[in-house]
Amino acid sequence: MPLNGFSPRVIIVYHSGFGHTAALAQSVFDGAREGGAEVTVISAADMTDADWDAVDSADALVFGSAVYMGNVAAGFQSFAEKTGARCMAGTWRDKVAAGFVNSGAKSGDKLHALNSLAIFAAQHHMHWVSLGLTAGWMSAGGSEHDLNRLGFWLGAGAQTDVDADPDDIHPADLRTCRHLGQRVATVTRQLVAGRLATTI
Ligand SMILES: Cc1cc2nc3c(=O)[nH]c(=O)nc-3n(C[C@H](O)[C@H](O)[C@H](O)COP(=O)(O)O)c2cc1C
Known about the structure:
Number of domains: 1
CATH architecture: 3-Layer(aba) Sandwich
Number of strands: 7
Low-confidence stretches: none
Largest sheet: 7 strands, mixed
Bound molecules: flavin mononucleotide
Shape: globular
Number of helices: 6
CATH class: Alpha Beta
Oligomer: single chain
CATH superfamily: Flavodoxin domain
Structural class: alpha/beta
Radius of gyration: 16 Å
């Protein structure tokens, strides 16, 4: 396969009750597109048969959720629980995975939700991709406009005031999600190239 022209298939599956996490999913989409991937965004609450076929054939899945009651939202967990048969069959084995979460509080126990996403990916025998950014906003020279301003490593973490409009997501969080999308596209391309090389 000529890898120069190869576009990995990346799908973002997210749950957003009020549109804030959906805006972040769009930034992951933009980043993955910039990274050369063929990208689709799917709402976990509205999966069609065609959507299930698409996730089953994707090279990478990026999971996203609003944080509700200290964990991924029920809408995301409902999607996750529908994948039990795929989990047993290993349908998603060795796909790339990554995640992003968004909460109202600065911490909001986002790490707990990211852990849930990473464990979900591990149950599917996927390869989890970290955020790949140094923590921002942690020195006198730092600011809330730094990439990874909230200092996550496992995935992207965003904070949105509970009374904010979905158009008012913090720009640094949008850029951080964009970075995650780019990184997933790059890592997926590397993994596919590596598989080809080792097969040869
Ligand atoms: C039922 C519910 C539970 C929530 N629980 C948390 C929480 O545990 N921690 C937190 O920081 N924010 C919490 N929030 C705030 C949301 O995470 C926040 O408003 C987020 O931006 C919503 O994203 P969405 O519009 O994509 O659903 C909660 C909101 C709702 C509606």
